[in-house]
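During the second year of the project, the team shifted from modelling isolated chains to modelling whole assemblies. The rationale, set out in the original proposal, was that interfaces cannot be judged from single-chain predictions alone. As a representative example for this report, we include one of the complexes processed in the last quarter. Its constituent sequences, exactly as entered into the pipeline, are reproduced here:
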Amino acid sequence: MSTDLSRLSLNTATTKRASLAEAVDAAAAAGLGAVGPWRDRVQEVGVEKAARIIRDAGLRVSSLCRGGFLTTSDDDAAAVALDDNRRAIREAATLGTHELILVVGGLDAASAPGAGARPYPAGRGDDPARDLVATRRRAADRIGELAPYAAEHGVRLVLEPLHPLFAADRAVISTLGQALDLAAPFDPDVVGVVVDTYHVWWDPDLHAQIARAGAEGRLAAYQVCDWVLPLAAEPLNSRGHVGDGYVDFATITRWVAEAGYTGDVEVEIFHEDVWARPPAQTVATLADRYTRHVLPYL
Amino acid sequence: MSTDLSRLSLNTATTKRASLAEAVDAAAAAGLGAVGPWRDRVQEVGVEKAARIIRDAGLRVSSLCRGGFLTTSDDDAAAVALDDNRRAIREAATLGTHELILVVGGLDAASAPGAGARPYPAGRGDDPARDLVATRRRAADRIGELAPYAAEHGVRLVLEPLHPLFAADRAVISTLGQALDLAAPFDPDVVGVVVDTYHVWWDPDLHAQIARAGAEGRLAAYQVCDWVLPLAAEPLNSRGHVGDGYVDFATITRWVAEAGYTGDVEVEIFHEDVWARPPAQTVATLADRYTRHVLPYL
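Output from the structure prediction step:
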């Protein structure tokens, strides 16, 4: 059995309590080929230094997580969100990665991710803050506003469909097919998609849409982690190690490979139990799971 | 503003702690036109008597909840499941409803709904118990086995797509489009679909698939309740009163009406706070919400 970890990437959310340097050390020591940093870990050391830390360890940057949250109907808030996304594009360019993951954001009615819904306007039975169709249209418009800037910087906006569990408060992009429809007007080198098993494993159209993403040249990243039950009290942090849950990694990985994907495989896990472990132990576990459940099918 | 409740139906799961007679009384007293009983409430009084209780109150039976859970790969377990579904078909016929809701069931790897996943077979990186494609094929086969029996009894198998949150442990039918694809080989009078807002509100293809369901004559039931956050500890019981969450009832109800649906609107809520109230209070709340958020768009 191959134990080649050169395509395995540690997403820094998986070792949430570690600094960038600590995460990079753990990944490099275990023989991984790449890391996928989150912006918080990059910004706390500064983007130039972050790039150096990763480069000096001999690792690639598989992607930068994340831009997005740009669906608001408020013009001022939208301007702030677009500015922040332009900054994320510059950060990705400086880090030397082509792939900037975007989580587009939710409904105006979502006061904060995971919290309750805003009440309806007085005396109204309908509510523009719950208009999912219009919110998705705004997501499309904002992607269009960012695309030229991303292209100038040699960075691709990578649309992430999130599990429909998060459609209200985190991402109105819920399927890979929808992400590809939104990407369609743009050059494949400027707007792509990511397959994150946690978010898309259930989709009856997944095989066809992964093939389509490959054929269109938009398959920008492959992230793996497992769907475990029962959900954690904070469902966002229910993502489990590969092999602990229900996802059929053999099948989905085959589909990704057949679609021509030759990039890194990022492990991105949000889970309190995983975060409580030392980074070296977490990396050892994810390398073991990758070797058993993903690599043979890649 | 109209307050005509003749198309409003109380699903007995909404008043979980009430007997069938108590639920029927509450619905009739408030002027509702129908109830949608669950099988437990029917079986505890006997199906003939249940039919009489509902008829004597002057109410229709909008649907019977529910058959299904027939995706197992174990032949003996499948035979038991099919027997139980045949019984559900007979119960629906006796109750005088044409619509039997089916929740098809989950993966073999789901030891019990909401509980953890079975481990992988020793030494294996893949696992047939996690094969979603094969599980969906079995669901199709079992629907085919039940269809003639349903047709003989004048009952329609109504496929319910469940929110992808439940794809592992409760239903491998996750979208309305997938449900319609599974229904396609059968007479529309024998296999139909239900639109339950909780399960499908997030679907980017919802408008098109509701229109398709109407055009094909398969739109058998419309169930409403709201997607509320944060999720309850048991996510199944996170369903809220219409208007308490994020669902755009005005838009979805318009789509259902435009698709030609003229049947009952069932309110099916699973929530501990709702169950703690007296049935009359729950029915008053759902009538108020229906009048404000659903009826004007129907």
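Residues 48 and 94 of chain A are 7 Å apart (CA to CA). Chain A has one domain: 10-115+135-240+255-268+282-297.
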